[in-house]
Write a structure and sequence with these properties.
seven-stranded mixed β-sheet; four-stranded antiparallel β-sheet; mainly beta; globular
Amino acid sequence: QVQLQESGGGSVQSGGSLRLSCAASGLTYSSYCLAWFHQAPGKEREGVATIDNDGRTNYVSSAKGRFTISQDKDKNMLYLQMNSLKPEDTAMYYCGAIAPRYGSTCPWLHFGHWGQGTQVTVSS
């Protein structure tokens, strides 16, 4: 069973940086997707970035150029480097997984494993 645990959230000022980490266990499948989502108060959970077992990445437009998703397969870790943070990035951040993956893409709606989240607060 896939288990995910996020860490690294905190409070920063606008323009600052944070690096989120997600420890993944039980990810024994050769084909999978990992992703970062965020959920602001009163809003639905939204995808931020995905990465698959081959290292292919995908970002939503608001994250492009500011955020970088990466993984360390040896350590079973997923990361999200967030730079140039804005107040609108304030949210709970979750890592998610599709495992196993049956297609060649990482559809947002197919993510079914979640961590408990880590809070990111960006002040102006």
